[in-house]
Each structure stands twice: as structure tokens, then as C-alpha cells.
């Protein structure tokens, strides 16, 4: 299937203006920033698959409340924060064996073995964690708004494509891994899950934190298990660009890694699940990124590390705690995650490549339409369009 590099369908920074309301939504605010001013089952299961994404991006924000940071250099990539957190959990698990608390690790290891299959069987959420006040602070920091443009029938299963990935997938995390933006109020009967790299579910202690937020491994068997659940209302959403797309995430950019990403389309066809495009305006505006043009030594190194580790390492920076020109914290810029209309998909056990290509093209067209219809409401210039690679 031929697909042009540029389809009419990135933008300067999403500026300070307060955009009008779109459809049904939950708006939170007002929240002030010195730089941008005032901005104002059997029920179902929503599954969010974010390859290369993390659920601990919020740890960045905790530093604002619990630490005094001295901004001096670009921040560590968020995937690195997850990697470091996982290492700490492993060190804790092993270290306890050499202390008088060794029994804790023994008991946990026993529990771990008994609970081994839970992540691939839909996970285990803890509602008090999903409803934690921490996520409401994180929501208000930007702020983040979930915008609903249509109803999603909880008797059906859906596959959702989330765009763009951004540096930290803040929109996907806050909207679908917490109740901070009122997801359950907007989409009653749907229970959100978020899928991330299977690797992290093999880390002691850390896996339990992930499960508490409703996360599950990002493998095909887990996705199929959730989509086959009886009663409908199961939605599998994918940040299609994944870790590689994060390397192009910077203010004013709307470059999506989608042209050859068709696995999620085939999955939808195999289960007869409608496809739902979702675009998160402002996702790329949160961080500046060290210049890494294609062909540069930095970009080559980042790609190489991604191939080895499975995570991307964008070198980003934004603002500090007590000043707004440089530091580790993201900019306080609003994020509007717009949920589009579902695309009807005919169930086929073994779809041909031509059928997958045709549906993939239809999905791109609907995503472009969603972007074009809403971009001016969120301060994206009229002459800016989505770009596909």
C-alpha cells in the first residue's frame, strides 16, 4: 500500500489561550502558570497498550512536591526512571535475604510464584491507588482534560490507537491509568487498563505497583485474553508510535510513526473490534529535546540502545521548580486527549494483507479527520497537518 509521507490531515506550541469545550468532557482548573497564564463486569474493560511507555512517569512530578531540584542539565529519559526504579526493587528483593528481614523476600517469592499468571489474565487493579490524590495533583499541574466526542457502547470491544506517544505518554497515563480526569464518568461500563513492556512484570515488588494501576503486559496473548472476555466493553488501546516515536517528540512536532505500524489493525480484525482513533493535543509540548536529527551520532546511538534494551532514551529538558527556563520538570501546558468515533471492523480470523492495508488506510484517514476537526480549538495553526513516517 502506497502512503505518502505527508497527509493533509505539527504545530507551534499550544500557547496560552483557553480552548473551547468539545463534546462531553471533564475540565479541571483553573490552574495558573507564570509562563502560560490561566487555563481554565460485568462492566467493560479498557485496555491501553503503550509500547515503550511507562506508568511511573508520575514519579517526575513527585519530585516537585517532595524534593528540591537544582536544574543543571537535561533530565533523564522517563524510561530510564522506570529502569532505575526496577533496579532498586531488584536490589531490595535480593538485599533483604542478607538481613534479619530475609523472611519478607521468602514470603514474597512464594507469593510471586503463585501469582505469576495474574498479569496475563487481566491484571489486578487497586482502586484506592488509581484514585490517589497524587494523580489529581498531576492532572492539575498541566492541566489534563479528557474530551469525549461520541458514545462507546460497553457491549462491544474496541481497539484504541493513542497518538502521539510524546516523551512520557502523560495523556494516556492520566486518562486511562488513573481516575484523575473522570474516565469512568465519561465512559461508564468501561474499565481502563494500560499495557506496557512485559519485562517490567518480571521485577519483584515493581510488578505489584504496575498491577495496582490496572496495567498488563504488552504481548499478544494478554491482549487476546482481554478482548475475548465475555460481555463486551473491552477496549485495547495502543500508543502506536511507541518508544521510537518518542525520539521525534518536541514542541511543534506532529510526526507520527504509523505508516508501517499495522499489527493493531490486524488484531482488531481478528477479534472484530472497532478501531477508535485518539489524539492527545499538547502531548509533544511538555519537553524540549536535545537535537537528534536522523543520521546523527546521537540518533544512531538512541536507535541502537532501543534495539538492545527495548526502551527509547530521548534526552529532554524543560523547567525547574523555582525558575522556568531550564530543569527536569515538564512545562505546564494543557493536554486535551480527544477520543474519536469508532470505525466498524468486520471480524476475520485470518485477514489478508490487502484487507489489513485497506483498513489501515481508513484508520489514517479518520485520524487525520479527527485532528483537522479539532486542531484550531487547541491553538494548532490551520496550515499544520499530521506527518506520517
UniProtKB/TrEMBL annotation:
<feature type="transmembrane region" description="Helical">
    <location>
        <begin position="81"/>
        <end position="114"/>
    </location>
</feature>
<comment type="similarity">
    <text>Belongs to the diacylglycerol acyltransferase family.</text>
</comment>
<keyword id="KW-0012">Acyltransferase</keyword>
<protein>
    <recommendedName>
        <fullName>Acyltransferase</fullName>
        <ecNumber>2.3.1.-</ecNumber>
    </recommendedName>
</protein>
<keyword id="KW-0812">Transmembrane</keyword>
<dbReference type="Pfam" id="PF03982">
    <property type="entry name" value="DAGAT"/>
</dbReference>
<feature type="region of interest" description="Disordered">
    <location>
        <begin position="1"/>
        <end position="22"/>
    </location>
</feature>
<dbReference type="GO" id="GO:0003846">
    <property type="term" value="F:2-acylglycerol O-acyltransferase activity"/>
</dbReference>
<dbReference type="GO" id="GO:0006651">
    <property type="term" value="P:diacylglycerol biosynthetic process"/>
</dbReference>
<keyword id="KW-1133">Transmembrane helix</keyword>
<keyword id="KW-0256">Endoplasmic reticulum</keyword>
<dbReference type="GO" id="GO:0005789">
    <property type="term" value="C:endoplasmic reticulum membrane"/>
</dbReference>
<dbReference type="GO" id="GO:0004144">
    <property type="term" value="F:diacylglycerol O-acyltransferase activity"/>
</dbReference>
<dbReference type="GO" id="GO:0019432">
    <property type="term" value="P:triglyceride biosynthetic process"/>
</dbReference>
<keyword id="KW-0472">Membrane</keyword>
<keyword id="KW-0808">Transferase</keyword>
<keyword id="KW-0443">Lipid metabolism</keyword>
<feature type="transmembrane region" description="Helical">
    <location>
        <begin position="48"/>
        <end position="69"/>
    </location>
</feature>
<keyword id="KW-0444">Lipid biosynthesis</keyword>
<dbReference type="InterPro" id="IPR007130">
    <property type="entry name" value="DAGAT"/>
</dbReference>
